[in-house]
Amino acid sequence: MALVSTLRSHVHHRLLCPSYSVVAAAAATTTSQHSQRPKLRHGVGLSPTTATNTSTRHSSSNVSPGGPGGTGGPGSNNGISGSPQSQLRFASAATATAPKPMTSSTFDAGERVISVQWGDSPSAAIGTYPAIFLRDNCPCTDCMHASSQVRLRELMMWESEVLDEITTIATVQVVGDSAMRVVWGDGHESVYSSEWLRARPLTSDPEKWTQARMSPAKRVHWSSSQFPHDNRFSLPSLLCDPSSLLDFLVGLHRYGVALVTDCGVEDGVAAQIGDKVGLPRETVFGRTWQVRPKANTNSIAYTSLEAPMHVDLPYMQIPPGILMLHCMRPAPPACGGNTYCSDGFLIAEHIRRDDPETFCLLSDVPVTWSHHGHDATSNLTYDFETHYPIIELDRDGNLKQVRLNQVRGSSLNLDANKVQKFYAAMHRFSTMCRSQEYRAELRLEAGEMIVIDNQRLLHGRSALEGEEAMVRCLGGGYMDWDMAHSRIRQLRLQLGR
To answer: What DSSP designation does 278 have?
Structure first.
């Protein structure tokens, strides 16, 4: 698979836990003092600021696991908080390196907040955790179902006076240097591991929280000259080697595109990869499908015409996250049929930087995306319609996905005096998608596959020229990012990565 050197122009009644007899705990030091209020610091917890507050604080130094306080009340496992799976699910950059030992914990009875410190240096990481958050996430088997990790007692169903009692902090202890034990006002005990706490820095920055816990890798945007052609993998390796599969999925998230070789020329490879990741995304076009010229089609993809830059199925509420295109038979080299790709996120960010008015139009104005017809393979008739802007943002203004396709409907939710400007904005986005600066051109050979983030990248195809080009045939399939991210978490647990 070669990167074509010539790039043409035109990117969340009362239910009480059983009573617990409180085992004698180590005496906690109680003092009245002015205490610094911490400021959130992403990744490692909290750091002090100059703000002060007068309150009663209680502190605890390290105690051994078998020391005062025991290991839990009757009927409680009170072990390390959360299963390995739940620990991994919230793994963050803060736990990627060897953590400092947990050295102390203090609590503010009035504010109902517990602070934990890792290490003894002036720059030691400090985490602050409200009592209600910790009690809601108590990992013992009376509060959390052991195998499913689902709450057995929903905190929000408790009456207010009960909620007040069960979130009152009685004592806090550091167990060894790797866990914290809390005894609550009703006698219940909870133990939280250092790893669990460090992986949950309560931060007011939703972007940082989401990026640290839900994103498998930081995205790398690319222009045509930066196309990640080295992000390639062998199909046998993907199917047999968990480490290779993990690298493939993480790389796909990072760059939005991956190349797969050694696929052979038989149909069904997209389904093989989809089954290995989890489940393929089945649509009205089937579990898999073929892209080849055919008569009486309702899609430009099934003609010999050039396929303009687009994303697949923008008329669905949630378009497929991942597109797989496997070349079973290429067109002869001189007969066209090359594959185009451009990074829609890079283009969107450049428009946001250079032309805020155009960016606002593209991200604010809903476009009608519609498609109807009948698929002969699945024998299903469909009539899809949805309304989303070309550039879709999340609640924090970050790029979520882009949509562009010739299946735009003819209705527009826009005042007439703004239509001209909106068309100009669409034209700018489309032109950039096709431009030499952003659009990479590749030729897929037999047995090669390109895998694309269908919510980020735009793709297209050059025209098929001549009768000989009509042999070109690609096998296609879809996956969803939810399934891919699930597999990434499982593989990281399995491989210790």
So the answer is: S
Residues whose CB falls within 8 Å of the CB of residue 295, separated by 6 or more in sequence, listed in order: none
Task: Return the minimum-mean-pLDDT range out of 149-163, 224-238, 245-259, 430-444.
Answer: 149-163
Q: Report whether 181 contacts 69 (CB < 8 A).
A: yes
Is 39:486 a contact under the CB 8 Å cutoff? no
Lowest mean pLDDT among 12-16, 302-306, 326-330: 12-16
* Dist. CA 319–CA 56, nearest whole Å: 54
Phi-psi group of 296: left, alpha or beta (phi > 0 → left; psi -120 to 50 → alpha; rest → beta): left
Cα(30)–Cα(56) distance, rounded to whole angstroms? 7
The DSSP bridge pattern shows strands 232-234 and 257-261 to be: parallel
Give every CB contact of residue 429 below 8 A, 6+ residues apart in sequence: 11, 347, 348, 351, 358, 362, 390, 391, 404
Cβ neighbours of residue 241 closer than 8 Å, sequence gap 6 or more? none
pLDDT at 281 over 90: yes
Cα 163–chain centre separation: 33
Residues in the chain: 497
